[in-house]
């Protein structure tokens, strides 16, 4: 992924392509290092009129500086973006990622925006702070502008690439609908999923978005796992009915400066949250690797900034490389299925400015529907109104919770789809006082052929409910039911113990359908050999989740094999379950911190080629059918021996290896004593040399070497420096005793190569042994 189209762009693309990589471009659609556009270099005119501007006349800058303004996507600006896309396609990129189509809710006062208002509505601009209607219409326009921008640029990218005989992919990396709503930004979000030239999203969800504090049980606090689960769910629900691809992002480090301890805790939480969606198996990892592996941050209790610890660096590499093997699955997270919460892009339209004293703190009208269920172990699904025209959107939903307190239906047709679903057996729980000031904005329900006071009046008429409807009454509609609660959902979470009303309503709905509503404090999922689990705080129990079996703990950089895993409230687990090991081969790498790109079982040897960050610790656990006799790790580029540690676990028949990654990658060779020559290895090299004069291991003994006088033995240091080289090794007169021309060699690991003539053929053996001097 090459970011930005600046000076040297073509050279950067060519450099990666020459190394065999497929190259994608990512750049901003609403902001970027586009100084040449604003300064006039692009077309001889300055374009600061295309900046987003707030009520006080201030340009809204990206990143807190004064160099990169957020933009209003005018026709001239889109022509500029197309010129960058054209340049990227000419350079040979295979995909275009236009990230973060964002319009700040507080902006909307620039001359460029006023001009777009006149073109879109055909009326003079109205300041958004003057009325709820002006706010809502301003938000609609902001969403439309970036929907149109992406539609136009992607259509150009597809057409131009086809002219050049290829087909580029077009993606939108974007925050979730929940994140944008919480931070008071406007984006086209769900509308993009059905654009003809849009191939998919990158779901930009990580600790920084998920840690936004939310209300629950009368307390506003960070709830990172729960928020991440709901954010990923909103992105999955946008793409699943359309078949578009979505990449889930997580980042071990966020934009804000925190401690390493904080980063690790919350990376694990967001990582597990995304894995609980088994219908997604495409990921973006390490979006900014330099700030992870080169950044310095403090530790809790130690304010001195320091680099990432080797242990956490290894853990991160294990986690991201495991994603290569985590499969799609038809399994679903445990818990009562089929409970949904209705969402719409219009959730973003009412956030800022507020009117008539009505507030929705921290998006509590949404979380009031979702968190009371999620905290009880119910895997809530987010359902996007914009996808209701697609039958798949409600295909697996039995109970749907909805409110028009914080959003409004953007089309009358949404109510047709809901009514059809209810009559076919679905249950709708509508919870809203319908008293917020946006109920009366000038929209479809009170214009043209309609004259409803509130959008819910139109829905209730569609369902043939009485007027007025009675609260807390269940209405039978066809094969389904409708329950009305006259509380805005925010009341369920902003007051202690106030969520029983919504939970009881969902329980009644499930009873009506013959469903059991199961409460618990955790989520679990099996994806192939991987076990994923999370236990929540503030739930129905403080008990830990106990998992028994044979597991590799993937959150432990030492990759231990354990028989039991205890997951406490507020913790998550990511495990490789050896009891479900897919034995596609008797010998295979199960888990690795590096990218394994070759595994070969040839001539009695198992060879593994792997690559990882240079000079970082590499670790892997390998399934074998028996304990190996010798192991060597060498640099593929230099051919030098690499020091390593190994540990055989007989119970699980797995080998743990740890070593240093070298530039160009490493090759690991595992030998087995009964698979050499004609069935047996004729020699066996000693594992220990201890030349301290006590008569035990004072020389390095190679058992059986005296039977093969035609031999050559070479010994190397861990850096590949030759310290011994002799022919005719016999354990007596020609023998290695830990000395070289430079004197006594230091303790440590040494590597050997033995060549000997056996009958008519030469046999080569390689391996390592340890030199130590203490008794």
Structure, briefly:
The protein is α/β, with parallel strands linked by helices.
Question: Explain this structure to me?
Answer:
- This protein is an alpha/beta fold and 775 residues long.
- Helix content is 24%, strand content 27%.
- It contains 16 helices and 41 strands.
- A 7-stranded parallel beta sheet has the order 1-2-3-5-7-10-11.
- A hairpin with a 5-residue loop joins strand 36 and strand 37.
- Helix 3 packs parallel to helix 5 and helix 8 packs parallel to helix 9.
- It is elongated.
Query: So what's the oligomer here?
Result: single chain
Spatial order of strands in the largest sheet = 1-2-3-5-7-10-11
Distance between the termini: 55 Å
Overall geometry comes to elongated
* Percent helix range: 10-25%
User: How many strands appear in the DSSP assignment?
Assistant: 41
Task: Return Rg in Å.
Answer: 32 Å
Task: Please state roughly what percent of the residues sit in beta strands, choosing from under 5%, 5-15%, 15-25%, 25-35%, 35-45% or over 45%.
Answer: 25-35%
Main sheet properties: 7 strands, parallel
Rounded mean pLDDT is 94
